[in-house]
Give the backbone structure.
Amino acid sequence: MRRITGILVGLLLSTGAPSYGQSGEVGRLHRMINQHRERIGCKAFEWHAEASVIARSRSADMYRRNYFDHETPDGRTFIHELEDAGIEAWGSVAENIALTQAGPASVLELWLDSRPHRRNLESCTYTHQALGETAGYWTQILIAQPKRARRVPEPDVGS
């Protein structure tokens, strides 16, 4: 069994299998957002892998602790999480959240129908995005010109 697992991992790595957030529903939302940005004249977002760990963790936390807010029940924001991970930006940062089971098209529609969320999405200043989703809780982190980040450990997002 160990040999089979090692072969599968080796195959995934050698075929360039996408990391979390670049496939499935989150990957679909990433592509949809970039198509929208290109239609309005902004460059497509680059994927920020380290911040995607934080986005997924924030979505999982909202689901696990049953809240929906930019601030956790103990007062932490995505900025605290970015700082803890050593992720810095030369420019500004922002966070969009959504709660829907209807998938990526619904998330994008909700964000475009909300003035502050739309402003974040359509700001050509932001160059990178990270997305995370758990049980219909969606988190997007936007970063303008990120500095180099230190490695972030994969969070425990189990139940």
